[in-house]
Amino acid sequence: MTDVKALGVVDDDQAVRESLTSILSAKGYRVEAFETADELLQASRANGYACLLVDLQMPGRTGLQLIEELDQGGALPPTIVLTGHGSISIAVQAMKLGARDFLEKPYSPDELMEAVERTIANAFADQSAPGSDFNLSELAPRQMDVLKGLVRGKPNKVIAHELGLSVRTVEHYRAALMSRMGARTLPDLLRRAISAGL
């Protein structure tokens, strides 16, 4: 059974584990931290966490492999992936495997807490995927082009270059997509696009 105050952390960097544990414990969460994906799997407690924070770049079994294995075993809790700068495309892969959110390092304690609380709240809210009833065919062709670029993990500058648009125009399309699809954050937009079939 899921414990709404229990969180799991998997990161090979001891300083990151200690920092996450300190921040989350100060907010009243019980945190179990693991250095490797294998340690978490051996503990066999993943499905009891209200939220799991997983670093994607780890030696041995990667964060992506861990998410995939937990998902296939039906034991993937609501998961936030932690990525290095420029790894949004990998975060998108993780979301396609079942992760709910991602945080790009470095992140502030406030960003961390907002992501954790949002992920837990969404997990205990209506289980139907947000945006899954959104019809992508309602988007204009250029909106769809921008959305496809975002789902592929491309930055605004790259999307603008590939589509022959200004960065400002891409930012406008991105804001319009978020509003139209009811998304508050980029991970939320990507999750909704993926659940709608993109």
Account of the 3D structure:
With 198 residues, the chain is α/β, with parallel strands linked by helices. It folds into two domains: 3-124, Response regulator (Rossmann fold, 3-Layer(aba) Sandwich); 136-195, Arc Repressor Mutant, subunit A (Orthogonal Bundle). Helix content is 50%, strand content 15%. It is built from nine helices and five strands. The chain has helices spanning 14-26, 37-43, 63-72, 88-97, 109-124, 141-151, 156-163, 167-180, 186-195; strands at residues 3-10, 30-34, 49-55, 79-83, 101-104. It has a five-stranded parallel sheet with strand order 2-1-3-4-5, with helices on both faces. Strand 3 (49-55), helix 3 and strand 4 (79-83) form a beta-alpha-beta unit. Helix 3 runs parallel beside helix 4 and helix 6 packs across helix 7 (156-163). The longest helix has 16 residues, at 109-124. The chain is elongated. The protein starts with a strand and ends with a helix. Mean pLDDT is 85; it is low at 126-132.
**What structural class do you assign from the helix and strand content?**
alpha/beta
Helices, by number, come to 9
For the sheet with most strands, the description reads: 5 strands, parallel
Rg from Cα: 17 Å
CATH second-level architecture of the largest domain: 3-Layer(aba) Sandwich
CATH fold-level topology of the largest domain: Rossmann fold
Distance between the termini: 32 Å
Let me know the number of strands. 5
Helix and strand run: EHEHEHEHEHHHHH
Strand order of the largest sheet: 2-1-3-4-5
Total domain units:
2
